[in-house]
Structure formats: C-alpha cells, structure tokens
Amino acid sequence: MPDDDLADEASQLTIDGDGNNEINFTAKRLAQEARQTLSFGGGSGRGIRDVTEEFAAAAKQLQPGQLVKDEYFTLFEAVGALEIMDPKMDSGYVLPGDSLEPDFDVCKGLPAGEVLWIMDELLRLTVVWHDGYPLSQTIFTSLHVDRLLSPDNRAPYGFSYGDTTLRVMTTEERLVHLVLRAYCIALVKSCALVLHTIQSQNFYEEEDFVTHLFGRELLPEIGADDAVKLIDEAVSVVEVAGVDEAMRAALFERLQFARTYLSLLVDESTDWTTLTATRLLAETHNLAQALPKAFSDKVQRQLATSTPPRPMIAISWDEALQRWMSMCADIIEAERLTDFDVCQSPHGLQRAIWAFAYREPQPNTFARAYLQTLLFASEQIAEGMAFFDLMLADIRDLVLAGDVLADPHSFLIEIPADPRHKCSRVVEAFMDKVFDEYMNIYRMICQNRCRIRRTFSQSIVILDRLETEAMRADAELSSITPGTILPNEGGSKEVGLNPLTSWVKYYKLQIMGWSIQLGFETGIYLPHELCMMYWYLMVFAQRKRKLLEHVGRFLVARRKHLASSRSASQDVEAAASREWLVVLHRQADFTESLSCALWQLCELLTTLEIVKPPKRDHAREQLLYDVRMKSYLGIAHEPIPTLEEYKSAQQSIPSIDETCEGINRAIANAKSCLVVLKKTTPQQGKYVGTEEQWRREIKQLETTCVAVAVQTSQLRRVADKHGKQSAGREHGLKGLVEVSIPSPGSRYHGWWVVPQIKERKA
Amino acid sequence: MSGNSKHAATDGPTETEPPPKFTGELNIRYISYGSEKESPYLPAIRQLISKDLSEPYSIYVYRYFLYQWGDLCFMALDAHNNLLGVIVCKLEPHRHGPMRGYIAMLATRSEYRGRRIATMLVRLAVDKMIEEDADEIALETEVTNIPSLRIYENLGFLRTKRLHRYYLNGSTAFRLLLYLKPGIPYKPTFPPEFPAESGGGQGQGWMDEVLVERQVVRTGVEDVYGERFDVAGR
C-alpha cells in the first residue's frame, strides 16, 4: 500500500455520528501516527535496527533487583498492565487443549426447540444485564449476537455474509436466519434504547450499570422500526414453518414479546402492563432444548477489554422472569407516581419519589432512569407545571401561602415601580441560585441508596451557603416592602418571617435529618454511636419543629389579615398551608420524640456498659467526632452542637427508673403524633398517590414505638430482678444483659434502629 | 480489580477445602519490606494476595506500591521465613489536602488466621504512617467482612461511606477513616483533575473520585475474614 493510502486509510477510521469518543480519539491518533511515521522517515530512513547492544548497555547500569520509576507512571498504568501468558490476565492465552475461538457455526440451521432455548437464554441474559453486569458477560456471549455485531458485518446484518439469499433454505435454516436473527436484532436494538435512556439520566457507571460496549456498535445502520419489520417477517415464517402447534405458539409468544419490548422503549406512551404477561413464556419454556454451545465467554477475546474472559453470571430462568416482572411493575408504578395529580404538589411528588425508591426489591437502574426521564425529560414536571412553578409552589406551600410575594401573578407585573415587580425579581434571582440544588433533591432520591446518603451529606453545606443568599434576598425584600414583624417566641425581641431563609433552612434541616437516618439504614454507625446520632437527630428535628412554629405564627398573622381583605383564593391557600404545617410539625415532633426515646435508651445502655465502644488505641474522642460529623461541621448558620455540648447533655440523665420513665413519656408523645398523622387526609398531608405507603409507614412507626417501649420494660425488668432499678447507673447491669442491633432488613423501619435487649442466661 | 470477597473465593474454580488450621507453636516475626530494592519476598506476597482474586494484579501494581512505600509494607514470617501475612499501603496528599495513608492490601494465610496476625500488621502500618506524619488513614473493606471491620474498628476507624457494588464481583464496601490530627475536616481539598476520556462515563454517568479510584485500582484486597470475632474483640 502506498504511503499516502496508508494515511488516508487511517484517517478514515474516524467514525462519524454521536458516538464513541474513544474510538474517534484512537482513530485520530492512529491517523496522526501514520502521518508522522511517513513524514519522519519519508520512506528512505525506515528499516529495522538492532537495539540489543544498546539495551544491554542500558540494562547494565542497573543493579539486579533495582527498580526505576518515572514520575508519569501512575497507578492507572500499573493496573492496565498485562502479563503475557498468564491465563488470568492475557486474554489471548489459550489453555492447552482449548481453542482460541468457539467451535460453533452460527449459520447452521437449528431445530425449533434449540432456537427457542437461545431466545430464552437471551432474555435471561438481558435481565442479568439490567442487573448491572456488562454486555460482555451477558448478551454479547451469544455467538449469534456476536456475529451480528462483528465489526466486518454490515447492514442488513446477516449471520452469513450475504450468500443465503438466493438459496432455498430448510425449515431449520429459516428458523435461524429469519426467526432467531430477527429476535436477536430486536433485542440488540432494545439494548441500544435502554442504554440511551440510562445515559441521558444520572446514574453511577459500574456501581449501577455498565454502559461499556467493548468497541462494538449496536447495529447502527438499522433502526428500531426495521427491527420490528423483521419480527413481523419472522412471524410469517413461523406461521408456515413445519413445527408443531405448541412450538409455533411458543415462538410467536417470544417474537411478540421482543416486538412489544422494543416498541415500549421507542414510544413512552405505551403501556408496560402488556410486558408483564410472561406467564406464557414461563409455560412454554419447557419446550426449549438446551444448546449451551451457542454461547461462549470466548467472544470476550475479540472485545475491546483488557480483562480476560470472565464467567457468565448464573441466575435461573424463573428468577430472571421474576426480576423482569418486577422491573415492568416498577416502570408502571413510575408512571402512576408521576401522574398529573401527584405532580401538583412538590411535597407530594417528593413523597412519591421516595415511595418509588423504597419499593421492594429496589428498582433497577433502568427503572430509575425511566422515572427520571418522566420527571426531567421536558422542561416541565407535568402539564402546565414548569420546574420553576414547582419550586415556587414549594416556597408558597411552606412559607408564603397567601402572600403576594410568592403569588405567580406578581411575577407577571411589568411596571418597574411596582414593589411586586421589584420583589419578584429578587425572588427570581434567589430561585435561580437555588434551582440546581433544589432539583437535585428530586434527582438524588432516584439514585441508589448509598448515593442518596452521600449526595445528601454533600448537599448540607451547599444549602448552608444558599442560606446566606436567602438572608440577603430576605433583607432586600424587606427593604422594598417591610413584612410583618412579630415578637419573638419568648417575647423579648421582634423578628421577621424571613421567608426564603426559613425555606432554605427547612430543607437543610430536613436533609440533615435524612442523612443521619440513611446512615442508620446503610449500617454506617457502630452500636455505641447510636446514642450520639439519635441525640443529633433529635436536635435537628427540634430545630425543624421550632422553625415550623416560627413560620406558623406568621401564617396565622397573615390569615388574620387575609380574612379582613376579600381575597378568597389566597385565604384558601393559606388555610391549606396551615393544615400542611400542622402535619409537618407533627412529623418533626414525632422524629424528635422517638429519637429522644432512643437516645435515652442507647445512652442508658452505654453508661450501664451493656453497649461498649471497642478499646481503641488510636482513637481520640474529638477526632472520632470530627470523622463522624464531618458533613455537618461546615455549617455556618446555626452550627451543630459541639462535642462538649453533646457530652454535657448526657450527664443530666438520672437513675435507670427515671430514664425509663423519660423514654416512656417520649414514646407516648411520639404515638400521639402518629394518631394525628393517621387522621390526616391525603390532601392535608400531601400524600396523594402514595396513600398506601403513608399508611404502611405509620404502621411501621407505630410498631417501632411499641418495640422501644417493650425493650425499655425488658431492661427495667432485669434491673428490678437484680434490685438495681433505683440505683445509680454506676452499679451497672454489666454481664446481666446483652444487646443486639437488628440489621436494616430486620427492622420495623429501616430508618430506626431499636436495640434488642435480652437477659443473659447465667 | 476484584473480588477480595467471599464470593470470589467461592465462585472461583480454585475453591477447594480450606487447609486445616495450623495449631502448633509459632514464632512470628514482623519485618518491613523496606525500600532498598525488589525483595525476594515479592513472589510470595503476590501469591498470597492473589490467592482469592479472580483477576490478579499485574506485577506493576505491586511494584507501584512497594517501590514508593516499601517502608509501609509489613510482612509476617515464621521461623523458616515463610510468609504468613502481608500489608501494603501508600501515603500521599489526598486531593492536595490532608496527608492520607491508604491501606491497599491486607492478607493472611488461611491456616494461620485467628492469631491476630492481621491486627498486628495493621498496627505496624498505622504506627509507621503516624511516624511519617499522616493526617488520616483510609481504606475500604467489604461490608460482610466482619473480622476485617473489627480489626479496624478496634483501632478507632469509623465507617464513613457505604460504596454500592464497589468490587467487580458486585459486592458492596464500607469506606473506613481514621483521623490522626485535629482539624482535618477543615483542611481544604480540591476536586481531582480527571482526564476527560477516562472511562465509560459518557452520557451523564457520574464520575467521581470513587469511580476513578475504582477504575484505577480496586485495591480492596482485604482478605482477613479468617480472623475470628473474638480475636479482635477484647
């Protein structure tokens, strides 16, 4: 090949379209290198040079065993290195007696039973892929799929490269070349669409899903509609194929399935319920005849990966169907939880997303991406409800109901002198700044549980900074239109509402509480840490409760004012907010009471030396505190209590009996909150669409309260028995009682850890 | 990189009956790998660590650590200089912020577990890192690896993050952290500079430190489940 052609050839490697940057990059580099090589030597200087002596001379300058490392050698490169001929690293190494390539002819005709088996196996692998395993270990192991995706295969993507068309095929060949191929193509196009959905939303590569294509493309030259046509053709092939009736029905079933799956992915408006009807698939699966040779992990050798073949993941057919069904159910639920009514209330929507996240088993990455698509794909959360409106509704619901400040009409006033115009610009500017973090709240809850906690932990300091912005905006607002001033709760000082500050603070405290409770759920805290975490949870909830009281007092004042004016709609809005604040207040009160009870219980168990921190040589109290509270230490507005403050709260607790009394009082209060919450209507409590989850959660929380009371009386009983109930704690119950901490799965509610207390058998 | 996990050990084709526990008297010596040159113990270290891995590290991964931080690597040897356990670490500024020690690999031979060898190795490494002015020490270990968690938690490490499907075999890890000096949370850090093309994070797949770390090396080669509960206990 002439030199110029070589460079041309290389530059044509560049692949057009939206795709693979890595390939593009590599292609460009190859082209560049080719050009450099050519220009460098110009042809004449190239040749082979023996470097043995130079190499030997250079090597002599090193002592045996001496290593040299340049500063550019990174861990990344160390990991990327392969050792040739090591069967665990060298993907080209073939064990003696084995072959490099799988020994199977994908063009060979197959009996219907085997085709059926391959189809079912592909569905099974699709489920495993959805579960987070790479294509290389799932769908790509199909030798039929591998042939279709082979880099030298072109549209219309046949198993054999274009020589079958003129020949009369046998039934078995038709089943492979027309039926199985259509099924494979439909499946591959489905993968492409699933990937598109996932990649257009937030997810975590590898831990949620592997999007890597290993250098392959998913049949770029044909579209989903072409695949549907192929399926339809396959259906007509099966209709006249010489197979028995049951087998024919089974094949139809699968083709129909692949068609439905593909069209659901293309068109979001269609109904996923049709895909849950996998009963027939299950029934006819026994007609399948296994043909394991049609799959091989050896295909991984041809894929762009540095890892040698890895085993396929084994899950059973039944389990695969089960998981498939639950994915479809999740998607159907995602639709329901984001319907028009739910999206009308920001808090109702948040509750709905939480409900989705806590479905059992946890929705997979695609289902979570699907939910995110429903929420964020357009500029509005629902018909007529832009993101901006959602946020404004949130501010109104919580702090400015019936107030002209957050009235959407105020934003439309264009007279510059009008204070409403001026105020709206201030509110808008503030909302712009908060927008991302606010929308993140919705987005976060769609992530995997570990990430929800971690991103919330990071959000705390961001919200704290936004609180500064809110304070500025509030000051500006009150300079334009001085708001109501009320005496402080104690009556000593006068305060203003500071609506935007209060609103940000509400979310900050909410997320601070969530981050601790997600810590309980993800097993972050050691048993002896529960005491401290419950105390802080109590403090956060208490702050939130007081904030809600503050907001509530201003709402009452506003309503008085509204009643005297003739603004009925604003009064209705304010009345709804009043009911909503009552609910929030009860919820905060509940969290405060239950965490107060559990703090006291854990504290008692700690001082009685039933729960003990390990003997830790390198642990210093303040440093442990720093590690544990790191996410909260950056808070500037109302910083969290220091270690000293936490410790001095502990020493005020009296005898065992008195502590138990205190726990019971807190539990009684928590229960009374639940009684009120139980009577709350979906509109009042903003749980439209999540009624069932609301009831279930209250039930779980009731049980948790009972469990705390039971454990407390259990402790008291043992103390009684040993005559220690009124004794000081220094006398201890050491050795008499043992405690176990239930794992997240075995709690009444994952966010509440209730220590299980048992009398130790002598 | 891989499964330092029980799954890897049980899935792998190498899984056989565990060798019987060694019961006799042992005269264990703990020595530092040192920084002189490549040690004759390297093959034994490799073998011990890769025993339960479905995908081994290349020799360069070991060299990467041992060449730069050989003084933070400790080995447990018996009287015949057989390697019973090893710990491999590094120590460098974390995101241009605190000096972070990192325990990359820890393994003990299964027949010798339950003798606090791993505990001793961790102590030696931690002490050395303190001597070298570390601000903090971090590591990851599998959430189900209770003995390993015990070892670290008995030294003062706390769990700070749960890392969903951290290892290649799909199992989840805890990040553990120990502060050695006051004021570490207030030290400024800077987000890492990612090479734009690193990894498959096109689309909006979130790339963060953990992912990059993971793609770089799955150094959670923690293999100490043989340590018994009570070993770490009191």
From TrEMBL, chain A:
Subcellular location: Cytoplasm
Keyword annotations from UniProtKB, A to Z: Cytoplasm
Gene Ontology cellular component terms for the protein in this record: NatC complex
Keyword Cytoplasm applies: yes
Pfam families in UniProt: Mak10, TPR_NAA35
Record-annotated NAA35-like TPR repeats domain positions: 351-722
Source organism, top-level taxon: Eukaryota
Start and end residues of each NAA35-like N-terminal domain: 64-226
Similarity annotation: Belongs to the MAK10 family.
PANTHER family, alphabetized: GLUCOSE REPRESSIBLE PROTEIN MAK10, N-ALPHA-ACETYLTRANSFERASE 35, NATC AUXILIARY SUBUNIT
Protein name, UniProt field: N-alpha-acetyltransferase 35, NatC auxiliary subunit
Automatic annotation (TrEMBL), chain B:
Cellular component terms per the entry's GO annotation: NatC complex
CDD domains: NAT_SF
Family: Belongs to the acetyltransferase family. MAK3 subfamily.
Ranges where the N-acetyltransferase domain occurs: 26-181
Residues making up the signal peptide according to the UniProt record: none
Swiss-Prot/TrEMBL keywords: Acyltransferase, Transferase
Coiled coil ranges: none
Pfam families for the chain: Acetyltransf_1
Any GO molecular function: protein-N-terminal amino-acid acetyltransferase activity
UniProt name for this protein: N-acetyltransferase domain-containing protein
InterPro entries xref list: Acyl_CoA_acyltransferase (IPR016181), GNAT_dom (IPR000182), NAA30-like (IPR044542)
Organism domain of life: Eukaryota
Span list, region Disordered: 1-23
Keyword Lyase: no
